[in-house]
C-alpha cells in the first residue's frame, strides 16, 4: 500500500506504518526527535526509507518496551498479541524456541514476571477506564498522513483518535518507574513528548479542519500498584514543542531536497544529512556535581575548598547546568 493522499487510515498494520508507506519519505515524531536530539545524519540512519531498515517484528527484545507494546495492544485493540512463555530467562533451548515461535506468530513473547506485570497493568487500566470514561468514544491506532507542502509529508500513529474533533487526543504510555511529575515529567521530554504534543494535533487538524484540544498522556506504572495518571503539556511546554517541530520540519525539508539532488547527480545522498556541528562543545557541570565536590571529605579528614563561592558565581552568571 502506498499513501498518495492525506487522510486518516484505519486498520493499517503497525509494521506497515513503521515502514513508512508514504509516496515520499515522511517525517514522523520519532524522526523529528532524532533530528532535534542528535542530528539529521542520525535521522537518515534511522529512517526506514533512507539509511535504516524497516522493523520485521513487533517484538523489540527489550523487555520494558515489549511489556509496553503488549499493554498497548491488549488494552487499546483487544488483540491477543501476548505470548506467555513460562520461563524466567531465555537461556535454555526450549525457552529460545518458545520465543522464536511467538515472534513467528506475530506475538510478543513475555517471560512469566513480565507477563504478570503486563496483565496487572491492563487490569488497572480497564478499571480506570470504567471510572473515567476515557478511551471509549473513538478509535485506536489510527494512522494519519498529511502534507505540510507538496514535498513535505508527515505521519503520526495515534493511540486514540476521539470521535469529537475538538476533544484531546489520547496517548497511552507505560513506565517502569513512578508516574509522577518529577519522574515521568523528565522522561517525557527525553522521549519527545513535547514534539508529539505539537505534531499530532497539527496533523489531525490538517485532515479534519478543526484543532483537537492538545494531547493527554495516560501513564500506567508496570509495577505494583500499577497506578494510572494523566498528564498534559502546559503552555510553555507546548510552545517549546512547536518550536522544535518547526525546526525539525525545516531541517527535514532542506536535507531531503539536497538528498534528491545528490541522487540525480549520482552522488552519495548520505552527505546531504549533516551530523554534529564541528565546534567544540564546552561541558558545564550540573549543580549537583559542584555541590558534591564542595562537600567531599577525602579519607575522612576533609579537604580545603579552593573556591567555596563557585556555586554562587554560577547562579549569578545564569550557568547552573542541567
How would you describe the overall organization of this protein?
The protein has 322 residues and is of the alpha/beta class. It has 2 domains: 7-252, Lambda Exonuclease, Chain A (Alpha-Beta Complex), CATH 3.90.320.10; 287-317, no CATH class. The protein contains 11 helices and 8 strands. It has helices at 14-18, 29-37, 40-46, 63-77, 93-104, 112-132, 183-190, 193-208, 235-264, 287-294, 310-317; strands at residues 7-9, 82-85, 108-111, 138-149, 152-162, 169-175, 215-221, 228-232. The protein has a 3-stranded antiparallel sheet with strand order 1-4-5. Strands 6-7-8 form a 3-stranded mixed sheet. Strand 2 (82-85), helix 5 (93-104) and strand 3 (108-111) form a beta-alpha-beta unit. Helix 4 runs parallel beside helix 6 (112-132). It is globular and about 50 Å long. It starts with 6 loop residues before the first strand and ends in a 5-residue tail after the last helix.
**Intertermini distance:** 45 Å
CATH C-level class of the largest domain? Alpha Beta
Unreliable stretches, pLDDT < 50, 5 or more residues?
A: none
Number of helices: 11
Mean pLDDT across the residues is 91
The share of residues in extended strands comes to: 15-25%
**Number of DSSP-assigned strands:** 8
Task: Estimate the helix proportion, in percent.
Answer: 40-55%
* Class derived from helix and strand content: alpha/beta
What is the string of SSEs from the N terminus onward?
EHHHHEHEHEEEHHEEHHH
**CATH fold description of the largest domain:** Lambda Exonuclease, Chain A
Overall number of domains: 2
The name of the CATH architecture of the largest domain is Alpha-Beta Complex
Could you describe the largest sheet, including whether it forms a barrel?
Answer: 3 strands, antiparallel
Order of strands, widest sheet? 1-4-5
Q: Shape, please?
A: globular
The gyration radius over C-alpha positions equals 23 Å
Amino acid at each position: 500500500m502506498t499513501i498518495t493522499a492525506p487522510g486518516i487510515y484505519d486498520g493499517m498494520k503497525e509494521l506497515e506504518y513503521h515502514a513508512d508507506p508514504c509516496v515520499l519519505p515522511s517525517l514522523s515524531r520519532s524522526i523529528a526527535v532524532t533530528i532535534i536530539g542528535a542530528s539529521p545524519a542520525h535521522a537518515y540512519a534511522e529512517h526506514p526509507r533512507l539509511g535504516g531498515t524497516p522493523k520485521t517484528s513487533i517484538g523489540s527484545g527489550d523487555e520494558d518496551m515489549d511489556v509496553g507494546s503488549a499493554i498497548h495492544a491488549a488494552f487499546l485493540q483487544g488483540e491477543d498479541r501476548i505470548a506467555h512463555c513460562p520461563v524466567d530467562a531465555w537461556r535454555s533451548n526450549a525457552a529460545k524456541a518458545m520465543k522464536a515461535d511467538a515472534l513467528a506468530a506475530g506475538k510478543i513473547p513475555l517471560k512469566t514476571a513480565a507477563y504478570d506485570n503486563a496483565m496487572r497493568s491492563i487490569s488497572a487500566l480497564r478499571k480506570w477506564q470504567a471510572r473515567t470514561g476515557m478511551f471509549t468514544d473513538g478509535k485506536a491506532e489510527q494512522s494519519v498522513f498529511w502534507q505540510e507542502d507538496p514535498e513535505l509529508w508527515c505521519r503520526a500513529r495515534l493511540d486514540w483518535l476521539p470521535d469529537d474533533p475538538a476533544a484531546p487526543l489520547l496517548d497511552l504510555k507505560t513506565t517502569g518507574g513512578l508516574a509522577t511529575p518529577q519522574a515521568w515529567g523528565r522522561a517525557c521530554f527525553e522521549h519527545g513528548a513535547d514534539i508529539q504534543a505539537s505534531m499530532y494535533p497539527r496533523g489531525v487538524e490538517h485532515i479534519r479542519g478543526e484543532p483537537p484540544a492538545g494531547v493527554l498522556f495516560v501513564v500506567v506504572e508496570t509495577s505494583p500498584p500499577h497506578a494510572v495518571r494523566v498528564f498534559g503539556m502546559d503552555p510553555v511546554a507546548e510552545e517549546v514543542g512547536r518550536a522544535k517541530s518547526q525546526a525539525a520540519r525545516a531541517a527535514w525539508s532542506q536535507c531531503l531536497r539536497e538528498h534528491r539532488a545528490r541522487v540525480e547527480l549520482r552522488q552519495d545522498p548520505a552527505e546531504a544529512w549533516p551530523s554534529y556541528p564541528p565546534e567544540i562543545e564546552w561541558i558545564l557541570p550540573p549543580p549537583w556535581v559542584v555541590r558534591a565536590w564542595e562537600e567531599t571529605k577525602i579519607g575522612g579528614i576533609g579537604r580545603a575548598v579552593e573556591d567555596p563561592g563557585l556555586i554562587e558565581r554560577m547562579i549569578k552568571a545564569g550557568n547552573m547546568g542541567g
